[in-house]
């Protein structure tokens, strides 16, 4: 049927092809349709607040929060919480965790920031001899990205490369593509082509939030005072704002082009997961607001929200069949896509072409998703 859809696009015109595409989606609903998420409050006991920044493919989440002694990073894995604070540090924040469990973040001592990579139980310095630095991302190959005294960097196997076209970097993929900001613009570094501006047309204050293995970018911007999330696929920008919402921030996109984020609904601040042609609301039961910022390939969503008591807590939400998210009570044992964000204004290209550009990869990958998720763990 997919071959017929693609082949008929040129014969019947875009409108007819789009109608056929919607019919295909109707009889083949996406994974998110009609499924209920399981929610876990992963707030470290005794902390004043907590926020998730990343969740990896194993369902392990990292983030940071405030204790009576200052800011600390944390790792949540199978119901156990581990505090992350490098030796001699006054405070620390964790930004990312890859599927190997390597954790990137930033610690601070006497007001000076230092990037770190936590590999196992060893804290490594990706920017030795730098006066100050931050780490914002760690790839599956262990490459650490961030910014500091000498600019935006990628540190890999002891070699540090500077990327002068960025003022900050937020993510990359195995093809050597990197996304980040340059002032108020969103920028993609494409090997062999250099730096490309990926800011939505007419938008201001654009910020990217990641890139997946297919090179689809999560980018956001503000237009006419409104924040809206977009996916940039090829030449098209696809609006991710759920129907009836006044704003959106697409915060993460996974390798199956599922998108998670948050925005302002009629019920207040809520989160969403968009999968193919369907959107599921993500809202922690009993909380007054929920902000999803991370998503893995199993469809697990993580973020933070405001509890009924007005506290900010980190959470993980898992769809039925997803791995790892233990429902055990968090404990203490010592010692985190893709990709969108706020953007406003009109997307370029026709809405039909934009939708097809986003949905065709989802349809092609649906069989692989079902097969992988059905495999016993």
C-alpha Rg (nearest Å): 20 Å
In which range does the helix fraction lie?
10-25%
The proportion of strand residues reads over 45%
CATH top-level class: Mainly Beta
Amino- and carboxy-terminal Cα gap: 31 Å
Q: Write down the domain tally.
A: 1
The strand count comes to 29
Query: What multimeric state do the chains show?
Result: single chain
CATH topology label: Methylamine Dehydrogenase, Chain H
| Mass-distribution shape | globular
Number of distinct helices? 3
Low-confidence parts, pLDDT < 50 over ≥5 residues?
A: 1-12, 16-34, 324-357, 361-377
Major sheet: arrangement of strands: 2-3-4-5-29
CATH level-two architecture: 7 Propeller
Global mean pLDDT: 81
Structural class by SSE content: mainly beta
Largest sheet: 5 strands, mixed
Structural write-up:
The strands form 7 sheets. The protein has a 5-stranded mixed beta sheet with strand order 2-3-4-5-29, with no helix packed on it. It has helices at 2-12, 14-27, 351-374, and strands spanning 38-41, 49-55, 61-67, 70-77, 80-84, 91-97, 103-109, 112-119, 122-124, 133-138, 144-148, 151-156, 159-162, 168-172, 178-182, 185-190, 194-197, 204-211, 217-223, 226-233, 236-239, 247-253, 259-265, 268-275, 278-282, 289-295, 301-306, 312-318, 331-332. By secondary structure, it is mostly beta strands. It contains 3 helices and 29 strands. Helices cover 13% and strands 46% of the residues. The two termini are 31 Å apart.
